[in-house]
Amino acid sequence: GIRKLAGRRPHLRHCLPPLLLFRPVAVIAAHPDSTPEERQWGAPVLDDLREACHEPYLELSERDRINCENLALEIAKWAMRETAEGQPRAAMWAALTVLFWLDEDTEHGLLVEESYLHRAVYALTEAGNRHPDIIARYANSARKAAKRLAKVLARIELFPTAAAHPIREAA
Question: Is the dihedral of CA 58, 63, 66, 67 positive or negative?
């Protein structure tokens, strides 16, 4: 799968963050302990993440889009398995790991202001601010995991450095 990566790095770079966030956010939003307000909040975030996943492929042919999406899904699953070091992890841990990684990654320009991903990350950050006790439970481990995630993605040269990106203005 990695050889297929060569011509699709730009597409994969922009698809991977929302893809890494989608499943944990869906699990958190659908959790039995979630309040109706939290479930209602989850739907627009998931919509933004879904759009952010598809956005990089708009100019590709149907065949190339499907191949690229499948490869991105493979990479996302592999990256999170590697990052979790074989341990079962909570959805909150996974979401925080990706958010901390995005916060640290200023080099690759992933959080373009007012993009679908930016809106989703902002909403997730706001939601986390309302539950500092839950965030505190996972924060230390997720921060360490964010560094591992950066190394895992650098290993396949998808994100060559562990540096990060400021929020940029949309062109």
Answer: negative
Amino acid at 68: C
Read off the pLDDT band of 55 (50, 70, 90): confident
List helix spans (H) across 3-161.
9-29, 36-54, 62-84, 91-104, 116-129, 132-155
Other residues' Cβ atoms within 10 Å of the Cβ of residue 166: 9
Amino acid, res. 119: R
Q: What is the DSSP letter of 85?
A: T
pTM value is 0.83
- Res 98: pLDDT: 94
What are the structure tokens assigned to 18, written together? Answer: 């929302």
Give CA–CA dist 128/135, Å, rounded. Answer: 6
Cα gap 37→133, rounded to integer Å: 18
159: left (phi over 0), alpha (psi -120 to 50) or beta: beta
For 163, other C-beta atoms within 10 Å of its C-beta total 12
Q: What is the pLDDT of residues 96-153, one digit of tens each?
A: 999 999 988 766 677 788 889 999 999 999 988 988 998 999 999 999 999 999 999 8
Residue 120 vs residues 10, 32, 62, 70, 139: alpha-carbon distances, Å = 20, 22, 26, 22, 19
